[in-house]
Amino acid sequence: MNKHDKQGTALITGASTGIGAAYAERLAQRGFDLLLVARDQARLDDVAARLRAEFGVSVDTLSADLTVATDVARVVQRLSSDSSISMLVNNAGVAVSTSLLDSDPDALERMISLNVLAVTRLAVAAAGAFATRERGTLINVASALALAPELFNGAYSGTKAYVLNLSQALDKELAPKGVRVQVVLPGATRTELWARAGVDIANLPAAMVMEVGEMVDAALAGLDLGETVTIPSLPEIADWNTLNATRLSLTPRISLQHAAARYGKAAA
């Protein structure tokens, strides 16, 4: 057994740059072998060659456009069939920066296809494979905008709220089977996502933009601490716990036989 066998292989989407590439480096440092997924094969090859040379890990690549159903199916098949895969970092995503009313409907559909449909297909495939083996870690990368829909394009923040919701539901389902689920909610992070969305990140206040390496280090520290929801910028996890506890406290009252009294008064 070599030093990497114990960790297994981490499959990382959006791995050619930004958050995905930073996860690849950090996980290689931790002894994971890697399966890097992105559209740009040349960039993937560059990242893979560097990580092999620097860390001595096995690095495989898979070129796939996760807005294309057949490419998603190829990644799903690998997740389902490769028993060495012990972690999925479900990171690939895009943003639309215009207001919802000004957005191109086709651009919104492509974003939803990647941020929601592909993320779901991969998460479900990983969940099934990991549950069968009673081990594994699923990391879904969402956004702090999941908690602040008023601040950006509502469809984008909606896709990230979906990822948060999906992750919390999967955690409840998978924890008894020995599978870890973490969802990461970064704030503004210095990556190419902004330029691709037509936003000059230099126009954002410097105090709210985190460097990508620091964000990923914080996310992995949150994983080590056993967090299900990690918000890298949040000073006190107690604030999230309070918000989540308030949400859970509503559960007994959101589905009842009769409408709330205030609605009866309004109708009268």
TrEMBL record:
<dbReference type="InterPro" id="IPR036291">
    <property type="entry name" value="NAD(P)-bd_dom_sf"/>
</dbReference>
<keyword id="KW-0560">Oxidoreductase</keyword>
<dbReference type="Pfam" id="PF00106">
    <property type="entry name" value="adh_short"/>
</dbReference>
<feature type="domain" description="Ketoreductase">
    <location>
        <begin position="8"/>
        <end position="150"/>
    </location>
</feature>
<keyword id="KW-0521">NADP</keyword>
<protein>
    <submittedName>
        <fullName>SDR family oxidoreductase</fullName>
        <ecNumber>1.-.-.-</ecNumber>
    </submittedName>
</protein>
<dbReference type="GO" id="GO:0016491">
    <property type="term" value="F:oxidoreductase activity"/>
</dbReference>
<comment type="similarity">
    <text>Belongs to the short-chain dehydrogenases/reductases (SDR) family.</text>
</comment>
<dbReference type="InterPro" id="IPR002347">
    <property type="entry name" value="SDR_fam"/>
</dbReference>
<dbReference type="InterPro" id="IPR057326">
    <property type="entry name" value="KR_dom"/>
</dbReference>
